[in-house]
């Protein structure tokens, strides 16, 4: 999504919410909240998934559950580096370096903590000029969350976010 499209969509959303008489969150607050929420959902899913099934693939040509989680972490690593001003490309972490549930969960915890700290350190006014890499990584993570919901359902599991709340 280009910056112009993002600004246009945020402007349209502001107009809609204003018409409804509700206060609109700032882009900074909205992106931060959604970014952290998707990370939370993914981490809960990673912790919930059975350790002996991290090599499960929905279809033979697809990534394993564990490899999808490592791929998601690659996006968060990228975002944290961009936020620190590093020249970086989106380099895929090698799933073979994270051979089991414990290693994948530890990777997710670190990459989420690093990217969320970098996100929180960005001054609010930055978001009026630039929403990347945050919007791209947020969209990427949310797409893969949806994929992992299918992995859960295919294994007779109810995704953590869909379970009744106590």
Structure description:
60% of the residues lie in helices and 0% in strands. The protein is mostly helical and 166 residues long. It has a single domain (26-162), classed as Four Helix Bundle (Hemerythrin (Met), subunit A), CATH 1.20.120. The chain is globular and about 45 Å long. The N and C termini lie far apart (38 Å). The model has no long low-confidence stretch (mean pLDDT 89).
Task: Provide the fold topology.
Layout: H1 3-19, H2 27-48, H3 65-83, H4 101-121, H5 134-154
Helix pairs in contact: 2-4, 2-5, 3-4, 3-5
Chain-averaged pLDDT: 89
Might you state the CATH topology name?
Four Helix Bundle (Hemerythrin (Met), subunit A)
For the record, give the distance between the C-alpha atoms at the N and C termini, rounded to a whole number: 38 Å
Low-confidence stretches: none
Silhouette: globular
| The CATH class | Mainly Alpha
β-strand number: 0
- Quickly count the domains: 1
Provide a compact summary of the structure.
With about 170 residues, the protein is an all-alpha fold. The protein is built from five helices and no strands. The chain is globular, with a radius of gyration of 17 Å.
């Amino acid at each position: 999504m280009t910056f112009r499209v993002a600004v246009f969509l945020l402007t349209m959303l502001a107009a809609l919410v204003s018409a409804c008489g509700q206060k609109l969150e700032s882009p900074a607050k909205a992106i931060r909240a959604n970014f952290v929420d998707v990370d939370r959902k993914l981490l809960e899913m990673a912790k919930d998934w059975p350790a002996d099934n991290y090599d499960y693939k929905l279809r033979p040509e697809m990534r394993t559950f564990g490899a999808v989680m490592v791929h998601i972490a690659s996006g968060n690593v990228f975002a944290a580096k961009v936020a620190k001003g590093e020249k970086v490309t989106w380099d895929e972490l090698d799933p073979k370096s994270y051979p089991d549930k414990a290693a994948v969960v530890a990777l997710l915890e670190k990459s989420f903590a690093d990217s969320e700290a970098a996100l929180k350190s960005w001054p609010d006014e930055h978001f009026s000029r630039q929403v990347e890499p945050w919007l791209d990584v947020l969209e990427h993570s949310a797409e893969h969350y949806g994929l992992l919901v299918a992995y859960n359902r295919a294994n007779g599991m109810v995704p953590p976010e869909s379970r009744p709340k106590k």
